[in-house]
Specification:
alpha+beta, tt1808, chain A, two-stranded antiparallel sheet, 4 helices
Length: about 190
């Protein structure tokens, strides 16, 4: 493939599953295989958010782990977690990729990908008008909450340790920040 031209879904749809890159600004990015602590944090966060699902079907959130989301023709990403308000999306489709902008995305940072999640990927999310972005750092044991204001990320807060509070946009659910992370040895 010519590195100078912009990639699209058509460039990756026929690649083997283990070679599926994300596309941001028309450029392919290959993600490293996540470490165990990264995966553990994703599982814990998904478990904390489970009460948001609500069984009545009309309110609450759909939360997905690593969905393929097409933000535009030249931006196809797989956030660690993404969420859609049920008021806006009555049923979660099983399309690949999803063409519906999430209301919230979350990336769990790893030493090999923090630059990407804070740089090109954050810009793609802002450009797509995703309202909320969380950056979860297992090494620092923090959750950074960002709000999209006019296409730019504004830090709402950075939470850590024993903080137990409702983090936007999930204002009716308290999350124990310290419990998201695997215990440290020693």
């Amino acid at each position: 493939m010519d590195g100078a031209r912009l990639w699209t879904w058509e460039d990756i749809v026929h690649l083997p599953e283990h070679q599926q890159p994300e596309i941001v600004s028309g450029k392919p990015y290959y993600r490293a295989v996540p470490r165990a602590r990264h995966g553990s944090t994703c599982v814990e966060l998904a478990a904390e958010l489970r009460p948001l699902r609500r069984r009545d079907g009309k309110t609450g959130w759909w939360i997905a782990i690593e969905p393929a989301v097409r933000l535009n023709q030249h931006a196809i990403v797989g956030p660690d977690l993404a969420g859609w308000r049920k008021e806006r999306l009555a049923e979660l489709p099983d399309d690949w990729p999803l063409d519906i902008r999430p209301d919230w995305v979350c990336e769990v940072l790893s030493p090999s990908n923090a630059w990407y999640d804070r740089g090109p990927k954050a810009r793609a999310y802002a450009d797509a008008q995703i309202p909320w972005y969380w950056l979860v750092d297992p090494d620092q044991r923090t959750v950074e909450v960002l709000e999209n204001r006019d296409g730019r990320w504004t830090v709402v807060g950075c939470y850590h340790g024993e903080d137990k509070l409702a983090l936007p946009p999930f204002d009716d659910l308290e999350i124990a920040v310290g419990e998201l992370f695997a215990p440290r040895a020693g």
